[in-house]
Design brief:
about 40% helix; alpha+beta; four-stranded mixed β-sheet; two-stranded antiparallel sheet; 6 helices; about 160 residues; about 20% strand
Amino acid sequence: MGQGNWTIEEYREYLRTGKEPARMATELHRKATALRSGEAASEVGRATAEGCTDCHAERRNKYGSRRVEINGMKFDSEHEARVYEDLMYRVRIGELRCVVRQVPFDLPGGIRYFADFVTIGPDMKIEGVYDAKSEATRKDRVYINKKKQVKAIWGIDIIEV
């Protein structure tokens, strides 16, 4: 929520719609714009700027990767797109039957793990579950925990490429 005092009407509107009052959104946008131009640099200003979606349309990925589009399909990174192309080559030569993207695996606590690719062999059985990961992502504690849970619950080893 934005900073400042809300009127009763603004608060009721927020409870009804879930959106901040227009004057608050304008204030957030003003602070974020000032921060981007180097005028303000306080922690409060940073937090405010992160809440403004208008100002961060071109925000970089946490690991520095950039989104790529190949043949009308969007990928989270160039590495993920290359892995997909390699797997599709295996489909074309008949080694695999198909490749499925962004397959969800339900985990305890309402958590979901999304595998980048699941490959189906010619015998219609799962050949492998692949995840395109950088070295930095492989060390991420959340990813490591999800990987362990997928192994324990589903009995699936995730192949990191």
